[in-house]
Amino acid sequence: MIRPKHILAFVITVVLTSYLSLNAQAKPLSADAVVERSSVFVGEPFIFQIQVSGSENPEKPDLSEITDFIVEYHSGQVNSSRSVTIINGRMTQNVKQGYIFSYQLVPKRTGKFLLPSVTVHANGQSAQTNPVVIHVQKPAETDDFKLRLYLSKQECYVGEPVTLTVTWYLGKDVRKFSINLPLLDQKNLFYFFDPQVDFKSGKKFYHIPVGDGEVIGEKGRGRLGDRDFATITFKKVLIPKQEGFVNIKAATLFCEALTGYRQMRQRPFGKDFFSDFFNDDFFSLGRQGVYQKVIVPSNTLNLKIYDLPAKGQPANFAGHVGEYKIQAQATPTQMSVGDPITLTLTLSGPDYLEQVDLPPLDRQPELNRNFKIPRERAVGETSGKIKVFTQTIRPLKPDITEIPSIELSYFDTRTKEYRIARTDPISIQVKAARVVTALDAEGAAVSNSSGSEIETWTKGIAYNYEDMSVIEDHGFGPVSWLKSPVWFCMIVIPPTVYLLLWVGLFFIRRQNADPFASRARKAYGRLIASIQKAQRRESEQQSYEVILNAFRKYLGDKLRFPHGSLTFNDVKDSLSAKGVDSETLGNLKSLFEQCEARRFAGNSDMCDASSLVEQSITLAKNLENTLK
Q: 357 and 502 in one domain?
């Protein structure tokens, strides 16, 4: 039975809701630009936000006009609120819809810069942000950190590879580091390549954020002045596109350096216990590391680039610059007209050969006249200072006695002249192709045996049959087939094999249709196994790195992201969308920051591996319970 007070409450609720909806204040779209600080150093990252009011789902704005800074999108989040006010009996609902876009900006050079107005679109409306002024200062060197640039040569020619070596000298433990290399923005002047890294050398390597990408740095030791440092070194290969004098501006290093420790207030069972567990200093026995931001500039360099001379340039010159040698091998050396010959060409020359192509064989007159050369050019394989190309050619006529010398025209930067490297001729034997007859096609052959002729047997085959009584009923049929082992196998095995092949093909197709599904199912088991292996590492620093890589691979498999250099910011939004709670996200963020910071840390101020493994397994279980 519905009571009167229930009806009254329902009516009041409906009236109140309608009244508040009528008095809700819908605000027009607006946008504000704010920065973390307006005075920064070259290479120092800072936060830039676009705060939108009037919409919870604006379109992502275009920041392409911000050219003096490296722009990296961090995150976007809803920033809305609702409240009710009652004044003199009048109730008003205040609705504030909003959204915040967060970016990280890194200044490329010194000066006073204006971040231009940015247009934001939402629900058919548009709004512009206010311009923001940023003052960028020149950083100063410190005694504990140095950054040095080195060129393999100070003069070169267009197309000649030059190696830039960047070495970071470290005198203290660091965290949250990145390098700004303005040279990489000059794509109109250079092609940029990363040289091969020998990961089997047993050396230690790190991912170094550089601009909007990253490079592989090699750990080592070095001496600068009168002091020994730990070093991180990486290289870039520059190939000039045009002549001129290039001033290579100073690179800038940003990092947070460990300057000391302070005592922590003990909170063993406080409300922040679990989140603090993954902090860098949780296991520091009451000590908390004190970090200071450091901005370190490098030296500057100059590079003189000369154009290739037009005088004396061979007709088949294909842009090879440096001192080259070329060798050739062929197999087989005996063949018929039209048979394939595998021609292997080995080039040796400058230190960097990744961009070097095979000499155009169709520009070799004698080779082109006697052999069929495919249109597709071979892709070479680089190994150290040589590059090997494999090409198939076919002789066009009989009695060809050799594969002629193959020429490679190049500009010798040492003698400043065009030269030609040649292979040695390769002797071969080419026979005419044999004519295929009908007998060849049928597989028949003429017998030359001289045996005796077949004699006629007067009794003939009918002699063996006297009457119908000699014919025996063998009962040949399906039942007899099943009784015979040979016939049974012939009947049963083919459909069985077909069925097995069909089942295998079904599973292969299902896996190929969604290859990530299998990886996602196995991700948790691999994560736990990797975490447990981390406890058996030789150093606790290696334990941190193993655990970080394990979580990267797990999250990449679960979320279908590439996991090579996955960061917390890459997965935060996706994990939230899948229902991962804020506490687990906070723990994951702390783990990423802790492990990233420890890549350069020493053995001091480290947690024991067993505790780290235990807490990592707890975090893994929480993630798996949500993502499975």
A: no
